Each structure stands twice: as C-alpha cells, then as structure tokens.
Amino acid sequence: MSLSFLEPRNGRSTADVVKFALWPLAIMTVINRVVIKAVNGDITNDFNPVYNAALAFLNRQPVYTANFDSVDPHYLYQPSATMLLSPLAVIDPERSRWLFIIASTVAILVALYILLRIFGFRLDSVAAPALLLAAFVSETVTNTLVFTNFNGFVLLGEVAFIGFLLQRKDLSAGVAMGLTLAIKPMLAPLLLLPLMTRQWKVFVTSIAVPVVMMAIAWPLSVDPMDFIDRTLPYLLQTRDYFNSAVVGNGLYYGIPDLLLLAIRVVLGVMVLVSLWLLYRYCREDRLFFFATASGLILTAHWLLGSLGQMYYSMMLFPLLMTVVLKNSLIRNWPAWLAIYGFMNADRWLSGRFVETGRALDYMRTTFGWSLLIIVIFAVLIGRYVAARKDGRLDDGIEPDYLLEDSRAAKTTKTG
C-alpha cells in the first residue's frame, strides 16, 4: 500500500498545509460536540420543557403550567411554536432528543456553508475548516447542542434572511424571518435592516407567516390565553440569574438603578450613532452593511434589553465573518478581546480567588458585548472624523488605503 499521499510535495502552498491541519481538527471537534458532549447533556436541559409541552399539545392538555418561582428551564414559546414543534413528542424523549441534536447540527452546518458562500468562499478554501472549527469550539455552539435548544435553527434562519436580502429576494427573506418568528422571535430586531434599505416586500411574508401559524395554532391549543396572561408577563420581567444583560447583572450585584440606566443610555447612544453612520455611508456595500449592522443590532438587543444569554452569541457569526473584508470594523485586538468574552468556553471560577473569579465568569459576556459596541462605535467615529478632516465624506468614510485601492482599480479598468 502506497503512503505517498502523506508525503509533502514541493510547491504546496501554505494554504494547503493549513487546510490539511484544520480539517481533521474541525471534524473531530464536531464529532466530540455532537456525539459526546451533546448526547451526554448537562444539568441545564432546554429540551425537556419543549418535549413536555409538545406532548401536552398532542394530548389536548394545558401547556403553560410552568412554575416561574424555580430557576429550571421553562417553556416560554408561543402557541404557534408549540404546534410546529409538536412532532417532537411522537416518539420517546431520548430518541427525540438525539434526533433534535442531529437536526440542530445539520442546521448549523448548513448555516455555516451559506455564510461561506455569502462571503465568497468555497469548501476547498482555508476559510471552510477554520470557520467550522471556530464555530464548534465556541461556547455558543457547544452549549446550544448540549442544552439542546432551538438556536441552531434560528442561526439558519438569520443567515438565510441575510442571504436573500443580499440577492434582493425579499419575499423569500421574509419567509426565512417569519419561520423563526413563529417559534422564537429573537431575530425580530433585524427587520430594521430591510427598513433601512427600503426592501418593503420583506415585511409581507415576515409578518404573514407567523400570523398564519398563530391563527392555525390558537384554536388547537387548550390554554392559549395562559401564554398571554402568565408567560408573556414573565418574559417581560428582568431576572437576576443566567442573564448577561446589563440589567440582569445589575440586579444580581445590586447596582443602583440610576447607574444601570446611565450605562444603558450611553451604550444605546453609541449603537444609534453607529447605525446612523453605517446607514449614511456604508449601506451601498450591502454585504458589509447587513453583516455588521445585524451583529450590532442583536448585541444591543441582548445587552440593553431585559434578557441576554451567552449562547445567543451564535447569531453574531455574520458579523465575525466580516473580518475577511478589508473594511471590517473588527480587524483590531480590542474587538477580539470582546469576542473572547462572549464566545470562548473558558471558565473563570477560581478556588483561590473566589469573588474575583466569580465576577469575571459572570460578567465576561456583558463586558464582551459592551466592548464590541464600543469598538464598532470608536472605529466608525474615527473613520468619520478622518474623512471629514480630509474633505472626502462624499466618497464615504472608508480608510485612505481602501479608497486608493478603489481608485487604482477604476484606473486599471479605464486604462
């Protein structure tokens, strides 16, 4: 048997070598996360409440019966989600959970592939194994699979939504968004994107799909009004556990309300200014605009709203992929310090430095999201000030070297 395929060849590029190194690392990491960590599970189990709700729905029993005084995972989805997820309870809980893990993994893999294609990469590029490894080694993908929640499908809906927006397939973009809203309305703030780009048809299907699903599910549910009377008020409350939002950690540590309000206002102003600069000067670069603005909007939603959990950060993958773009706002070390805070699975609990370790572990997501907003704001303001000083705002706020590259490309074409 010849082992010549293992022998390096002269002229093989560094990219090829990196691919050969990354693919086995990425594939084995995926297998570990799915077959070992996810199947093993954890104390936190987001699947059980969903399965029990689906089983109750199929048996015409009340669904919204959770005891909100406990810190166990609760069933918080609307009736349309209960109907759409009810097939989970057709088989026994263990096999159903395994199938859900497989389906969630497939959804994440498809989302990553679409993300690659959106940014112009193929499976034979270095970016493919790098993205796969980075995604599955992260806390957000790991715990999404281990806790067995719906976020993998939400990621697929988000990436499909952005992909259809870029192609101007507005009705399809609305369907992708509407399906996620019918189950988990996490992505609702992203409807600001088609609003800013005046892609009005998106709203037709993004609103129609969840409305139709709810209209079908409502009469099929035994206790739909309990979702309004019991569950919805709970969703609007701020809890002081498993909550990385500013107000969540503020409640946990007893920070004065006035200080929390001031923090939220300052960060909120940064977000609004950043969104205005992106809209005013960057929306013609649609890939950069959609990927960057989507990440900024969602980060603000979790950080400044009533609930933000670390594994939500999966929805920031489009923003993180902008690092491959020359005009990316995250090509700097503070941005990746922020990303470490909300993506890395490291634990900072310490037996020697108990209080410091606990604070670092509990607050790192909050700090990471906050720093990301600050970095995006600072880079955009810096670009705006430099462009205004040079009198080139009419050409946008891209850095000088990017404008020079653009002019050189135009000169080459005309020449």
From TrEMBL:
<feature type="transmembrane region" description="Helical">
    <location>
        <begin position="200"/>
        <end position="220"/>
    </location>
</feature>
<comment type="similarity">
    <text>Belongs to the glycosyltransferase 87 family.</text>
</comment>
<dbReference type="Pfam" id="PF09594">
    <property type="entry name" value="GT87"/>
</dbReference>
<keyword id="KW-0808">Transferase</keyword>
<feature type="transmembrane region" description="Helical">
    <location>
        <begin position="98"/>
        <end position="119"/>
    </location>
</feature>
<keyword id="KW-1003">Cell membrane</keyword>
<protein>
    <submittedName>
        <fullName>Glycosyltransferase family 87 protein</fullName>
        <ecNumber>2.4.-.-</ecNumber>
    </submittedName>
</protein>
<feature type="transmembrane region" description="Helical">
    <location>
        <begin position="171"/>
        <end position="193"/>
    </location>
</feature>
<keyword id="KW-0812">Transmembrane</keyword>
<keyword id="KW-1133">Transmembrane helix</keyword>
<feature type="transmembrane region" description="Helical">
    <location>
        <begin position="258"/>
        <end position="279"/>
    </location>
</feature>
<feature type="transmembrane region" description="Helical">
    <location>
        <begin position="366"/>
        <end position="386"/>
    </location>
</feature>
<keyword id="KW-0328">Glycosyltransferase</keyword>
<dbReference type="GO" id="GO:0016757">
    <property type="term" value="F:glycosyltransferase activity"/>
</dbReference>
<keyword id="KW-0472">Membrane</keyword>
<feature type="transmembrane region" description="Helical">
    <location>
        <begin position="286"/>
        <end position="304"/>
    </location>
</feature>
<dbReference type="InterPro" id="IPR018584">
    <property type="entry name" value="GT87"/>
</dbReference>
